[in-house]
User: What shape does this take?
Amino acid sequence: QVQLVESGGGLVQAGGSLRLSCAASGRTFSSYNLGWFRQAPGKEREFVAAISRSGGSTRYADPVKGRFTISRDNAKNTVYLQMNSLKPEDTAVYYCAASSVVFSSTSTLYDYWGQGTQVTVSS
Assistant: This one.
């Protein structure tokens, strides 16, 4: 089992940057594929980015390609989401998630979730 705690959210102007972190407990962090999802008010949770166990493979949702970068540090049990050129439509609660089985963009395939961190982008 793994517990996930996100941090790094906040209020930023359009065009700005934020770096989200997600710290995990447990000694098996490197055995999990990790993902970032987001949920805006009144909308369903959507996929943002995913990274494989080793960090060798990544996947991004089309709206964030070229602006966001997912990375992980298995020695620190942490996954990151670097967000650049932020837009008001990026405003949402951002969640990290862990999957012991698949490298996927499908939220239902993730076993563990953090509590979320709010990102607000002003225009």
